[in-house]
Design goal:
It contains three helices and two strands, in the order H-E-E-H-H. By secondary structure, the chain is mainly alpha-helical. Helix 2 (65-82) packs across helix 3 (88-104).
Amino acid sequence: MAGSLILFSLDERPHMFGKPRNKNELPPPPIAETDSTAVEVVRVWAAPGRPQQVILRTTWEDAGAWGLMLVDIARHVAKAYAKEGQEPASVLARIHEMFEAEWSTPTDHPSDLHDS
């Protein structure tokens, strides 16, 4: 399930469907424009002092696939931080540490955005 790490600069180019792009929105990766079978499976937005908001598609029959994807994402994050001078192993260790802490003692409980 490993994907490709793509680092984007935040720019003002239009959304792929012609809608104006939120200035803080990441552009879609190349596969979104080159493979008609590709689908966005998760989108996460964060704001200081507020819980993250997540929109997702269940996508896979086996929910365990999300575990694979979360690990793949963690590895991509480590590569991105490495480009900023941090040691990838230390970044992964910190991600793992915080994952375990949040798993054991949640600081937030998911709620349905439509119920807000």
